[in-house]
Structures are given as C-alpha cells and as structure tokens.
C-alpha cells in the first residue's frame, strides 16, 4: 500500500483527500480529525457501488474508533482508508490510525464478546475476516492498521 502522491489540503476543503496509489486495484483516502462522515460514506458507495452500504458501515465504525481511541482524533490527526480490490470477490479494506492516545501503553483492537454492539462486533458480523497490525518506532505504537475482508458472494 504505497502511495505515490498525496495532494496538500486546501483551506476550507472537505475533510477527505484522495490518495494516488501505484496499484491500480487500490483506491484510498485520508480523513482528517473531524467527525463528519458524509464524505466517507459517499466515497464508499462510489468505490464499491453494489456493496457500498456495508463498506460504508464498516469504514465508518473503524474511522469513528480511530477518532475516539487514537491520536487520529486529535487536531491535525488523520486516518488513512484504502480499499484493495485485487481479489474482486474478496476486497480488503485497510484503516490506519496514528496510534493510541497514551504512548505509554500497548493498546490494540480487541473484540469484547460481552458487548455485541461494539464497533469490532459490528465489523466481525459484516465481514469474513479482520485482523490488525501496527508499526513500532522503538518507543511506542506509531500506526495501527485494521484489515477487513469482505465476501461479496455472501448475502450479508
């Protein structure tokens, strides 16, 4: 998931910036710290028209979690969203935040089986697979990425 170029934000512009990715099967955006998700929903519906509602629901849950639990929700923070459609029936969504708010803890995404309405419970229900990874800068988690796989053959 390497980006070629990200245009600089323009004052007063939308909270969404499109990424120019080298891989023709990928499309991506960067969202700022604001919590206006209309642009994200529109992007999801255009990126995966026949399954845009499911993609939008999962993307919104993950971006909301990013804003709530990571430095991405702080002023100047960003969240990166990439859809990889190399496997046309099993597209992969990657949502990357800027790491946990508290740099002194190892905080990672986990499913709470006692809370079926939590964000990850929704993701778990609407996808066939999800996982996470993080980058470490030697002192703290720098970025956390959640990967979600959709099965477009299922009638979820």
Number of strands: 7
Rg from Cα:
15 Å
Write down the oligomeric state.
single chain
The tally of helices reads: 3
Which regions have little confidence, pLDDT < 50, spanning 5+ residues?
4-13
Structural class comes to alpha+beta
The CATH homologous superfamily is termed Histidine kinase-like ATPase, C-terminal domain
Distance between the termini: 27 Å
Protein name: ATP-binding protein
Organism: Nocardiopsis exhalans
Folded structure, characterized:
The structure is a single chain. With 156 residues, the protein is α+β, with helices and mostly antiparallel strands. The chain has a single domain (36-149), classed as Histidine kinase-like ATPase, C-terminal domain (Heat Shock Protein 90, 2-Layer Sandwich). Helices cover 23% and strands 29% of the residues. The protein contains 3 helices and 7 strands, in the order E-E-E-H-H-E-E-H-E-E. It has helices spanning 38-47, 52-69, 119-126, and strands at residues 3-5, 16-21, 26-32, 78-84, 92-97, 129-136, 141-149. It has a 7-stranded antiparallel sheet with strand order 1-2-3-4-5-7-6, with helices on one face. Helix 2 (52-69) packs antiparallel against helix 3 (119-126). It is globular. Mean pLDDT is 87; it is low at 4-13. It comes from Nocardiopsis exhalans. This is ATP-binding protein.
Short description:
This is ATP-binding protein. By secondary structure, the protein is an alpha+beta fold. It contains 3 helices and 7 strands.
């Amino acid at each position: 998931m390497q980006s070629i170029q990200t245009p600089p934000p323009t004052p007063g512009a939308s909270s969404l910036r499109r990424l120019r990715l080298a891989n023709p099967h990928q499309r991506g955006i960067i969202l700022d710290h604001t919590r206006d998700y209309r642009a994200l929903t529109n992007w999801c519906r255009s990126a995966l028209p026949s399954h845009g509602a499911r993609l939008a629901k999962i993307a919104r849950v993950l971006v909301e979690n990013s804003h709530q639990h990571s430095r991405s929700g702080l002023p100047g923070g960003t969240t990166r969203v990439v859809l990889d459609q190399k496997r046309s029936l099993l597209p992969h969504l990657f949502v990357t935040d800027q790491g946990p708010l508290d740099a002194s803890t190892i905080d990672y995404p986990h499913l709470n089986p006692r809370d079926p309405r939590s964000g990850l419970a929704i993701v778990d229900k609407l996808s066939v697979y999800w996982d996470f990874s993080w980058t470490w800068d030697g002192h703290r988690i720098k970025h956390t990425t959640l990967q979600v796989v959709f099965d477009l053959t299922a009638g979820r």
